[in-house]
TrEMBL record:
NCBIfam families referenced in this protein's UniProt entry, alphabetically: proB
UniProt subcellular location: Cytoplasm
EC number(s) reported in the record: 2.7.2.11
Catalyses which reaction(s): L-glutamate + ATP = L-glutamyl 5-phosphate + ADP
GO cellular component: cytosol
Record's protein name: Glutamate 5-kinase
CDD domains per the UniProt record, alphabetical: AAK_G5K_ProB (cd04242), PUA_G5K (cd21157)
Entry-linked Pfam families: AA_kinase (PF00696), PUA (PF01472)
Record flagged with keyword Cytoplasm: yes
InterPro entries found in the cross-reference section: AceGlu_kinase-like_sf, Asp/Glu/Uridylate_kinase, G5K_ProB, Glu/AcGlu_kinase, Glu_5kinase, Glu_5kinase/COase_Synthase, Glutamate_5-kinase_CS, PUA
UniProt keyword list: Amino-acid biosynthesis, ATP-binding, Cytoplasm, Kinase, Nucleotide-binding, Proline biosynthesis, Transferase
The keyword Nucleotide-binding is annotated on this UniProt entry: yes
Length: 374
């Protein structure tokens, strides 16, 4: 069997696990299965791989704890079930990772959090800090405060958005089927599994038309869509059976299990394209010659010390243009400070930011990952 290099080389991964798998098809949290995934993820972590888990199952687990056998129609009942079930989910993840002396953290997100630039940067900084500390974040939708998402949303999309957010190399979607089939295998016993495709392949849509299982929200359609979303930041997606023995460890070894959906372009090119597509700039930073030279060499962040003046009104997370003293545009990027704060720290060394602002969110005015040289 040919080996897949993508997974062997990955340093940062998102692992998304669906409701049916996590809750033993709705019978209650499958602690044994969860423990086995944790063992494999702990091995990745000790290998130096950074892992974020996107865990579904709060509604299913809440229903099971409350003794409900039929999924309620009322939104607030679903939200109540999610709140009850989330307790069990995070407790179980925490207890299982504790066996490996790994800390976990609960992150509850809504789609809005990731579309608002400022909150996007905040979520990104928190997740990055957790990963730096060797913690495994456990992400789910914040079902208490969302309305549409609990009905139409799905964690496949959330998994892809998190992969974009942390610039993961790959998204692993564990589900109750062995992978993506050319038609719904529950209804078609002759269905064939897809081994590898481009995520953009339009032929995938017809295959994934079959709807979700009783507990899941998305089915394969949302998984294919998630793969396309992940591909926008250059990440690959694997859709794979979570009940396959040692699925995660085997993927890491490069085994061709499940379906691999590939991006069109690499991560750096994809990120630059994404940044470049944010055409609207909200402000302008004029840089001194030293900063211009450093940025033009590439691969470096912009520090406040290299900024001579700040024009415009903008908020943290918005796109600004960086120009040289003659007004020629050098770079664009997502700024870490509001306009007034940027004005206050411009020209100063980063170790004075706390003294001037009373706090520090980042040492850089614009981080190199959030900047494109023009
Ligand atoms: N082409 C397909 N290949 C595989 N599964 C499919 C396909 N079309 C529809 N499905 C259905 O999608 C289900 C998985 O989606 P879902 O229930 O949302 O899972 P999860 O809880 O893992 O997100 C499978 O049980 C399967 O019946
Ligand atoms: N926040 C919800 C997500 C539901 C969901 O997306 O389920 P799935 O399709 O099984 O991943 C929950 O935890 O139940």
């Amino acid at each position: 069997m040919s080996k897949r290099i993508q997974l062997r080389q990955a340093r940062r991964l998102v692992v998304k696990i669906g409701s049916a798998l996590l809750t033993n098809d709705g019978r209650g949290l499958d602690v044994a299965a969860l423990g086995l995934w944790v063992d494999q993820i702990a091995e990745l972590v000790s290998d130096g791989v950074e892992v974020v888990i996107v865990s579904s199952g709060s509604v299913a687990e809440g229903m099971s704890r409350l003794g409900w056998t039929v999924r309620p129609e009322q939104l607030h009942e679903l939200q109540a079930a999610a709140a009850v079930g989330q307790m069990g989910l995070v407790q179980t993840w925490e207890a299982q990772f504790k066996r490996h002396h790994i800390h976990t953290a609960q992150i509850l997100l809504t789609h809005d959090d990731l579309s608002d630039r400022k909150r996007y940067l905040n979520a990104r900084s928190t997740l990055r800090a957790l990963l730096d500390f060797g913690v495994v974040p456990i992400v789910n939708e914040n079902d208490t405060v969302v309305t549409d998402e609990i009905r139409f949303g799905d964690n496949d999309t959330l998994g892809a958005l998190v992969a974009n957010l942390i610039e993961a190399e790959g998204l692993i979607i564990l589900t109750d089927q062995l992978g993506l089939f050319d038609k719904d295998p529950r209804k078609n016993p002759d269905a064939q599994m897809v081994d590898e495709r481009r995520a953009s392949d339009s032929g995938l849509d017809a295959m994934a038309g079959g709807g979700a299982g009783a507990l899941g929200r998305g089915g394969m359609q949302t998984k294919v869509r998630a793969a396309r979303l992940a591909a926008r930041s250059g990440a690959f997606t694997v859709i794979v059976g979570g009940r396959i023995e040692k699925a995660i460890a085997r993927l890491r070894d490069g085994d061709s299990i499940g379906t691999l959906l590939l991006p069109e372009q690499g991560r750096i090119a994809a990120r630059k394209q994404w940044l470049a597509s944010h055409l609207q700039t909200r402000g302008k930073l004029t840089l001194d010659q030293g900063a211009v030279n450093v940025l033009c060499r590439g691969g470096r962040s912009l520090l406040p010390v290299g900024v001579k003046s700040v024009a415009g009104q903008f908020r943290r997370g918005e796109m600004v243009s960086c120009v040289d003293e003659a007004g020629k545009e050098i770079a664009r990027g997502l700024i870490n400070y509001d306009a007034d704060e940027a004005r206050a720290i411009a020209g100063r060394s980063s170790d004075r930011i706390t003294e001037v602002l009373g706090y520090i969110s980042d040492e850089e005015m614009i981080h190199r990952d959030n900047m494109v040289i023009v």
